[in-house]
Every structure is written in structure tokens, then in C-alpha cells.
Amino acid sequence: MKKIVIFASGSGSNAEKIAEYFKDKCLLIERIYCNNPQAGVIARAERLGIPCRVFNREEYKSGQILHELQADSPDLIVLAGFLWLIPASFVQAFPNKMINLHPALLPKFGGKGMYGHHVHDAVVAQKEKESGITIHFVNEHYDEGNIIFQGSYPVLPSDTADDVASKGQVLEHKHFPEVIEKLLFN
Ligand code: GAR
């Protein structure tokens, strides 16, 4: 049985898709780590029966969360809408075992402050003809680790940022679980 943990800050729709995809397969979502006590992912975790560890900045910076993560000993750490920078100590402790989902075609529209609707607003403002999603390994810098997978979709002149977000979400929900499966079982 492989084990993963998920880090999330927001609604948790990707965490839920991953849980659905791996239901009755040889993969356990051991825990969801959440840095935002208001996040929708907390209620989803409860509904899905996945333990959820809500933490604050002090616990994150002090090494407490790294300590708990090491005790979990996951095969893969999955960032699904997690918005804090990952400390170098985490990257060193889990080399090539941490992946992130980003809602754009990196290296475009990446970096600090580029998350969620900020990305989609920028895509529309810059009149991009396409956008997409990127799944990549995590290093010490925002959105810069080696790319594992990219998927794209057309952006129409009439598309709003919400339209772009919806197109991206369809790709995320389909491909993120599949990429996790390939990384762990191939
Ligand atoms: C996803 O669209 C993901 O690509 C994005 O946050 C959303 C989380 O949605 N991540 C980033 O912007 C990271 N820079 P969810 O909470 O519904 O899974």
C-alpha cells in the first residue's frame, strides 16, 4: 500500500478528486495538511474520512510540521492548491517526492503571488490564446521545479477569468490523479 499526504489551502476539489480516483486502489491518503482554518478542504476531509491537520505559521516554520510529515513517511507529498512557499528543509527531506499543481503553462504565469484567480485574471488581461495546467516537482522556489506534465486548452477572446478557471479545473481533475498514479506505480 502506497501512502500520500496532501497539502491544501483552499476548497480542496483536487484533493477530493484524488480521493475518489484512488478509492479501492492500493493507495492511502494518510492525511491532509491545511494552513487555512477557513478552507473548504477541512469539511471535505471530514466527509471523506481523511484525517486533517490544520496548522499555523509558527508550527510550519519551527519544524513541527516537518517532524509530523517525517513520522507519516509518505511515498509522495502532493500540493493541491497549497499557497505557502515550501521550506528548503522539506525539499531536502523529501527529494523528488513532492509535486505541485499549477493552473497555467509554466514558466508563464508562475512565481510568488501567482495563484488561483490571479493567474486566470492575468491570462485574460494578456489576451493569451491558450492556457493550461502544469504538474511539477517542488524545489525551494515557487513554481520552478522540473515539469512532469502539462496540458493545455484554448482561451477564446470572449472567455472571462471564470471561464478560463473552469477549463483548467477540468484538466486538473482528470490529470492530477493519473500523474500521481504513474509516479507511484510505474
Ligand atoms: C487549483 O486550481 C490549483 O491549480 C491552484 O489552486 C487551485 C486549488 O483548487 N494552485 C495554485 O494556484 C498554486 N500556485 P482546489 O482547492 O479546488 O483543489
UniProtKB/TrEMBL annotation:
Keywords noted in UniProt:
Purine biosynthesis, Transferase
Molecular function GO labels: phosphoribosylglycinamide formyltransferase activity
What reaction is this protein's catalytic activity? Answer: N(1)-(5-phospho-beta-D-ribosyl)glycinamide + (6R)-10-formyltetrahydrofolate = N(2)-formyl-N(1)-(5-phospho-beta-D-ribosyl)glycinamide + (6S)-5,6,7,8-tetrahydrofolate + H(+)
Span of domain Formyl transferase N-terminal: 2-180
EC number(s) in its UniProt entry?
A: 2.1.2.2
Offer one example of a GO biological process linked to this entry.
Answer: 'de novo' IMP biosynthetic process
Keyword hit for Lyase: no
Where is (6R)-10-formyltetrahydrofolate annotated to bind? 57, 100
Q: Which residues form a coiled coil?
A: none
Q: Where does N(1)-(5-phospho-beta-D-ribosyl)glycinamide bind?
A: 12-14
What the protein does?
Answer: Catalyzes the transfer of a formyl group from 10-formyltetrahydrofolate to 5-phospho-ribosyl-glycinamide (GAR), producing 5-phospho-ribosyl-N-formylglycinamide (FGAR) and tetrahydrofolate.
User: What protein name applies here?
Assistant: Phosphoribosylglycinamide formyltransferase
Question: Which species is listed as the source?
Answer: Sandaracinomonas limnophila
Q: Which gene encodes it?
A: purN
